[in-house]
């Protein structure tokens, strides 16, 4: 108990001497310069060290260097703009490896941008983005440079696919051209990753790359996407009237910011009684809107936010906007030429399976060279965001190590993606790095590069996978909200406890030290 108290006191003392970062809306570094048209896509307009240290949730993250760069890009229509990207260097940096990590911002407010969320003592309103930081540390522990782009751009246009995809590619261009201060090799291998809102940006980057950034094909070794958003209408209808209704408010405000020429159309469609509350979402981060709009109905019910209900999507101007922001719709919009990895929960209640299914089938039909899709039979959107990443990280590491991806298209179904080969290794790495980082370890140098499974990690992964298979996804509709015991039943819980008790008893009987097993020592049975 005493070490924990001392840790908290130490953290409080250190934080007292760290200034609070300025939010992007009040930070001139984020301003798009008047001569933006004089720069090329991917140019670094200006750079700085992060104004305060970067964070690992509530603690500082000890990396060798952290920079913010203002990058020239363009919006959905080709109009020049600029966004901020954060470049992180671990202590054991390999200049030949770069990871572009697309965090889920899922908000129309610039003060929720990842570049701000990553900063120590940034507002806890950005906690959903901050929850991905332990995953970002995974790449750093492997020695990869990491670039985290504010891909929604200066207007924070959440769900604008082309804006987001272009920004991802321009963030990669900027990082590859930053060698004079980061040391990154201009010929470095590049991996892309994103889940949920981050998958929208990553997926669009993969689709746009052949035409928009053809020179990057030789750099990008693959893109991993989970909770893959390809159709924003499908997600909006799935979320309507659920715990996730707030996503709709953020998404529609986001797309309105990109298509401001249709302001009058959106205004006309909004219920006058709901207009003021709807626009409050422009100042919200994701968590704020989830709370603000929980169970509210935008396209259904007696008094929906949009008077036409689902016919809102058939208004000609709205339908055209949706069409232009639907990925894998027609081959002429682009087909990925880089390897892709898709992980998705079969019971995803926010991004229904129809979305990745259509994307996978269309890209494969149109000649995509390599798409590996691993489906979890048991998880929904929220659980898969944590349970599925191990599979994605394992796949990415194999690509960085030069192992070839699958040829053509391959779809595999598992109880959960915890069972994907090597997923347990990734989680050991995430946990090891995060815990060591809490105590000030130099990320990369002091964090072990874990690359093998252990007896215990396999058992834990298998056990949790089977448990997820018994309880299923978290319900998000009001009428479906029940306890885990009601989902799984007392017998299921008893069986789970018995299974882990059997393992515990076996280890005690054989005098096996669980800590040593977790660290990689193979036990003798």
UniProtKB/TrEMBL annotation:
GO molecular function per UniProt: triacylglycerol lipase activity
PANTHER family given in the database record: LIPASE 5 (PTHR34853:SF1), PTHR34853
Superkingdom of the organism of origin: Eukaryota
Family matches, as InterPro entries: AB_hydrolase_fold, Lipase_secreted
Organism of derivation: Candidozyma auris
N-terminal signal peptide: 1-16
Matches recorded under SUPFAM superfamilies: alpha/beta-Hydrolases
Biological processes per GO annotation: lipid catabolic process
Name of the featured protein: Triacylglycerol lipase
Keywords recorded for this protein, A-Z: Signal
Catalytic activity field: a triacylglycerol + H2O = a diacylglycerol + a fatty acid + H(+)
